Amino acid sequence: MFIATSAGCPTPKRPVSPLSIAILAALATLSTESALAQQTPEIQEISVFGQGQTRQVQSLNAEQLAQFPAGTSPLKSIEKLPGVNFQSADPYGAYEWSTRIVVRGFNQNQMGFTLDGVPLGDMSYANHNGLHISRAIMSENMGRVSLSQGAGALSTASTSNLGGTLEFTSANPEDSFGIMTNASVGSDSAQRLFLRMDSGTLSTGTQFFVSAATQESDKWKGAGEQNQDYLNLKLVQPIGQAVVTAYYSDSDRAENDYQDMSKDMIRRLGSDWDNYFPDYARSVAAARGNFTGGVNSLDDAYWNASGLRKDDLSYVSLDLPIQDGLSFTGTAYFHDNEGQGQWGTPYLATPGGAPLTIRTTEYVIDRSGFVSELTYEMGAHTLSAGLWTEDNDFEQARRFYGEPSAAFPTRDFLKFQRNPLLTQWEYAFNTETTQLHVKDLWQATDALRLEFGFKSVNVDVSAKTVVGDNKSGKIDTDEGFLPQVGFVYDLNADSELFGAASKNVRALIGSATGTSPFSATLAGFNAIKDTIEPETATSFEIGYRFRGDGLEGVVTAYNVTFDDRLLAIQQGSAIIGAFNALANVGSVTSKGIETGIDWQLNDQINWYNSASYNLSTIEDDYISGTTRVNTSGKTVVDSPEWMFNSELGYEVDQAFAKLHFKFTGQREYTFLNQGDVDGFSVVNLSAGYRFGQMGMIKDLTAQLDIANLLDEDYISTVGSGGFGNADLAGTAQTLLTGAPRQMFLSIKAAF
Hints:
By secondary structure, the chain is mainly beta.
């Protein structure tokens, strides 16, 4: 079978691997040879609305996460929660160049992310201090995802959580020995194989699991692959009353990128337009200015593009009861990363070779840290104090690699490039982080619980110029008192009021890209290095939770004041790689309301709904050179005013089905609101059957998932190529179209 690429050149589709066929065939054979074990599955809550929390919190547990197609990013799983704007150009929500999450006007690099308490950094594509959750853990090993839309917990190890916090928790090993496997196939030659072995509880009390997975898929348009290999290990060892937990993750990710689009490109070339690969001759001709097929610029398509990431993440933690009411937890963690973002650029020719080169942005992370907390229960008070320290070495470089032949390509975009032709710039950053928090949780009365505390944040960044403009120097963020207070008041056994207020900071970062002073031009860096202020946010929220027979819900109102908002304004097309124009636009205000309701109508039917209204507005103009840019009163980019989710779940005997609808309102993608994308709706469907025990198989489940059931044509990600002030001509190349209808079949078995 063949598909036509955007360049008009046929590319063979990857066949389903023999291992996939063998597993599917074996499971199918076992299912036909065994008698059906009748069992009625327990109906699972769609979400937990954080009863008893002083903050707006929702969670999804392992059973709920398992309802998504295998390999789905945990980020995508929370898109149905109130106030969450999640976008991705692929159906899994795992394609990192495209993944974006915005909550209450804050984008993901203004949020906090942790796995088992270990900081994951700001989860941006060019992450300088962590890694994406899709590389930190396999979706099958996820135990819980908890979202705080407003203030995260004081103990969260993050210096970027101005807005919400996402806390990911890995599943623990099972009590009994067992083997779990999952094989899935789907659209665009997608295939995923997962295998996990649990030791059960050994004579020493030890429990552990070892799991491996491989995932491969062709892009849904154009040509190229998106692949990942994983390894996860987790061990839990009791030692007396204490418990030691160890975790290790290895991830090797290589994915060809989709071409960033503009409105003009979509009109001229269609929403399924993509890069030239594998038509090398056409890309060479275009680099020489010989355009064909509606192409009219160098930026309409590039030869190829990709993102490569290799990560090793590990931690060892100790939970230690010291005496009655006094306990200690501590986690030491380590993370190594190597990454390259690659673009086949026509803006620099290879001397004596092709009229193009491979332009990379390269990343190396070597970080280690320690997160600890001491908790003491004293009557009606639960006192806690914690310390987080991290040392992070981050190297970043812009390099070019030659293509010596204009007749045929010599470099593979799914492999790390070596032996550069040119290093344009290279910087080495060291970031030292210290965060201290103190908190008191006071059960003031039977009905009233109060929480108050503060954290102190100190982040020192030093930069060394290896190649390029001299932007060596030091910047620091020092906030000694960031308070947080909250309350929960029980109106009765089934309803409560809650509220919280907090102040948070996003530390200045050491990076040559993003909203960092080191990402500015040399002149811009010299102008701001001694005066730049970190972003801060003061948040207030108040809400009402209720639950009864088969019904629970939440209503929350919030107001956020965001000071010293930094904008990284893209200069020219992203592939040119010009340094940003960095602007402080002063204050931003976000206000809105979020609602969620989960209704178990009967034993078979569950109906979940969430809706949110958000108005995030820039309050000030800013000065660019000598020009005033009139951003005051403009809506913050990528912040839809209205979002709505509705999900209908049905279970009877062993059969189950789920229909999910999401509406996302209009979004701006320029700071002056002179460029927007229309609102859209997407419907997803999943259905399956739990066969139960069948012979040697303890549990067998088959599931069919259809993403974008109605084949909606829409723009998913905005800002993929950065944000600018305006786009009146519709030529800003910073949009990604959403995936069309996709289907996936999974067979899950436990032995």
